Each structure stands twice: as C-alpha cells, then as structure tokens.
Amino acid sequence: MAEFEVADAEAFDREVLRAPDPTVVMFWAEWCPFCRRFRPTFDARASQSDRRFAVVRLDDEGNPLWDTYGVEVVPSLAYFRGGALVARKDGRLGRGLAADELDAFLARVLTP
Question: Quick one: pLDDT band at residue 68, thresholds 50, 70, 90?
C-alpha cells in the first residue's frame, strides 16, 4: 500500500476514518524540527510495509484534528481501524520520537 498526506479534517474523515483498511497515522507539522527529523524514518517504514500509512499535517493550530485527537506534541503516532483510534504513541516535548519507538509501535499494532 502507499503512504499519503492528509491536510484537513474532511480528508482525514474520508481517507482514515472511512477507509476499509487499518491505517497508521503520523500527526506532524512542518514547523516542528523533531517532525522533520522523524519524517524520513516514518517514510522508510511506510515504503517497506504493505499497510496503509498516512501523514496528517497539522501546521495550522486551528485545525480541529488537534483537539479531536488531543494532539499536544508532534510528531505523534496513531493506529486507526474501522474508524476508531485503536492505539497511540505520542512524541515527547523537546525530543519527538525515535526510530526504535516507531518500530515498537508498529510491531504492537501490525502484529496479528
């Protein structure tokens, strides 16, 4: 499957919540240095997987997805299945996320 970007709540509803297949989501913002550092790692894992991966851009702090999903730190990871949030791993303020944290999250949510 492919990785794709989502920029607003309407696209999120269509591409993630109503998707027939489970989706691994990375909430991120262009202005976040930890997100920019983490993005290539996320992209690499997405390219190695047969699952759906979405990059949800939260550049605008007025984006309702910030509040809907209680995103306080970016990058943050989430796993959606059947329109519901099933699992989540939030980045750490001033640190973000590391590759081993992504790998552990993916092992937990993608292992049958």
Answer: very high
